Amino acid sequence: MIVRRAFTTCFNSNTLLPSPSQGTNTVTATTTITLLRLHSLSQPSTYPNPNHIPTHHTELQQLLNEKCKLGFDKLDDALVVFDKMLRMKPLPTVIHFTQLLAALVKTKHYSAAVSVFSKMCSCSIPVNIITYNTAINCCCHFKRVDCGFALLAAIFKRGFVPDVVTYTTLLRGLISQDKFLEAELMFKNLLKCNQIQPNAVIFNTIINGQCKTGNTSQAVMLLRYMENKGCMPDVVTYSTVIDGLSKDRLVDEALGLLAEMSDKSIQPSVVSYNSLIHGMCNLSRWDDIIQLLNDMDRHKISPDEHTYSILVDAHARDGKVKDAQYLIELMIQRGQNPNVVTYSALMDGYCLRGELNKALAVLRTMTSKGILPNTRTYSILINGYCKKMKVDTAIHLLEEMPLKGLTPTVETYSTILDGLFRTRRLDEAHKFYKKMLNKGVKLNVVTCGILLHGLCWNGLVGEAMSMFHKMESCGLVPDICIYNILINGLFRDNKVDKARNLYHNLLLKGLQPTVITYNIMIQGFCHEGLLEEAYKTLLEMEENNCLANGVTYNTLIRGCFKNKMYHGGCVLIDEMVAHGFKADASTASMLFDLLQLKEQDPALLALQKKFMP
DNA sequence: ATAGGGTTAG
User: Fold this and answer.
1) What InterPro entries does the record point to (predicted)?
2) How many Å apart are CA A327 and CA A334, to the nearest integer?
């Protein structure tokens, strides 16, 4: 069904024309024409080029073997080889041509690959299902899965039979374009209609899609399903699910699957370990990380550049920049090459510590090694400068990006916007925001949060509220962070009723308040002297199974003291300590001041008696 | 002697 529907959409007038929404690739006019021509390639039309150049096929094979591994240095080289091949006598086999095509796809010369395939067809090279599969893979990587389906139609037209590889490639293409539901439906139909004998690879493709769309539990179920159907999960199946679980912070379940692998004598790979180590890093479970590294050593699996990158990133984010630096030296010693991701992670570590000069030094090191900074590298630096209030330098870096062929993301722009608001450069912030919109940057919830926070921070709560309503009407769904920002802003603007209102609205929308939401409310009520309501909020959060944290208690205790409710404050201190939290600096100094007071309040005297026996 | 699957960054 889904396949047929895809066919009809493919033949619909202009689905093949590049649409602005798919503009990640530069689709040239010639590419588009070539893509369009693919449809009519049911029958070969012309004969081979008459100007044959005699060349040995073995020589060609050697060249292709080499280029398949390393890729062509220049696109022109590949096209020259192709041209030569067309003029060879006898004509090289379709295998040679398919190898060339695969090499082009591997080196990401997708539009060139499309023209080569098209030319192969028009020169009556006897292309087969494998050639088609390679071409479909090319379309999918080129983010044109619709063209992939057009080729599937061509396969049927020429009387070929698509195989499991054809469908796997198409499924992966759909998934990579966020069409997982379509992929899943198509997969189910293929199974139901017995169109293919499913193997591990096609299952793995779907399992990966499930993990990427947040359905890890379903992925585990599909793994069990394939076992039951006698299609044994392999190392990729397990690694995919382990990665999904690790990203969901379910690392212990992931460890269970790793153990299951060795029970079934499926050798884990470095990828399986990398996913798990990454998961452990996100939870700062350092002991587990060390254990996993030892485990790898025992299994004679060496860490690769991914492993090191993950570890460098974890150390850098934890502030351990020295260790991160050392890890990079270690990986070089062991013959691994740090790449832009590795160096960017280290730079991020320095930026987080505010050590911008050291971050710049890393940038110099990497460029001296011929590693070019990417969008993320720039974003890290821009973020570093904004956090240091050096917004002008950040803007300068932003302007430099297009000159280096880099496109800032919505996150990059948002960082600058945040910087302008924080430094109270309101006019510029407004102008910058307009410029962002003019550039066609698509706003997301995080950007809106920055905008709303910036407005509130600068006392423009009214503007923030109207922005919030506009945001809702634009189809952006406000999350709990947005509500937190606004409720906080309203309280700071003494708009208690409106804050209360907004809180009830978020409950009505089915959103779950977090500990931050409650803390904001408690602080707001305390500030207004509404201690009763603040305390009721504490009870409410307990009812809603939201645990109070140190901030909650400290806020409430300070509120009590400020309102001369010494007894209540004292009871809460006991409760806080019982829950394992401590007074923070500001509560402690407040308490210290109170104890010096010479007021004859009975509750205060009791308090003094308790803390100064 | 040709094709498809898993890992690194707010």
Assistant:
1) PPR_rpt (IPR002885), TPR-like_helical_dom_sf (IPR011990)
2) 10
Q: Report how far residue A444's alpha carbon sits from residue A476's, in angstroms, rounded to the nearest whole number.
A: 7
Residue nearest B4, CA–C1′ metric: A165
Closest residue to B5 (CA to C1') is A201
Q: Which helix (H) or strand (E) holds A150?
A: helix A145-157
pLDDT in tens, A438-460: 998 888 898 999 999 999 999 99
Q: How far is CA A541 from CA A110, A538, A553, in A?
A: 55, 5, 12
Which residue type is seen at A252?
D
Signed CA dihedral, A445, A447, A451, A456: sign only:
positive
CA A50, C1' B5: Å apart? Answer: 42
Asked whether A578 and A548 are in contact (CB, 8 A), the reply is: no
Q: Which nucleotides of B are covered by protein (CB under 7 A)?
A: 1-10
Closest protein CA to C1' of nucleotide B8, residue: A306
User: How many C-beta neighbours within 10 Å does residue A158 have?
Assistant: 16
List A53's β-bridge partners, or say none. A88
Q: Cα–Cα distance between A584 and A607 in angstroms, integer?
A: 18
Exposed/middle/buried for residue A428 (C-beta within 10 Å: 0-12, 13-18, 19+): middle
Helix, strand, coil % in chain A, rounded to nearest 5: 70, 0, 30
CB neighbour burial string for A55-73, b if at least 16 within 10 angstroms, e if fewer: eeeeebeebbeebeeeebe
Q: Please report which helix (H) or strand (E) contains residue A519, including its range.
A: helix A515-527
Spatial distance between the Cα atoms of A396 and A518, rounded to a whole number of angstroms: 40
How long is the CA A332 to C1' B4 vector, in angstroms?
Answer: 33
Structure tokens at A290: 């060390």
Rounded to whole angstroms, the Cα distance separating A260 from A237 reads: 12
What Rg do the C-alpha atoms of chain A give, in angstroms? 31
Residue A274 CA distance to nucleotide B7 C1' (Å): 6
- With CA of A415 and C1' of each nucleotide, the nearest comes out as B10
Contact A152, A135 (CB under 8 A): no
Give, in order, the Cα–Cα distances in Å from A488 to each of A149, A329, A429, A472, A541.
51, 46, 21, 19, 17
Distance A339 CA to B9 C1' (A): 12
State the 10-residue block means of pLDDT for chain A, 613 residues long: 32 29 34 35 36 55 65 74 90 94 92 94 94 97 95 96 97 96 96 95 98 96 96 97 97 97 96 97 96 96 96 96 96 95 97 96 96 96 96 96 94 95 95 92 90 94 93 88 96 95 94 95 94 94 92 92 87 90 87 79 74 66
Contact assessment for residue A258 and residue A272, using Cβ atoms and an 8 Å cutoff: yes
Nearest by Cα to A498 from A471, A470, A478, A469: A469
The residues near A88 (Cβ < 8 Å, ≥ 6 apart) are: A52, A53, A54, A55, A57, A60
The 10 Å Cβ neighbour count of residue A605 is 13
Closest CA-bearing residue to C1' of B2: A95
What is d(CA A402, CA A273) in angstroms, rounded to the nearest whole number? 37
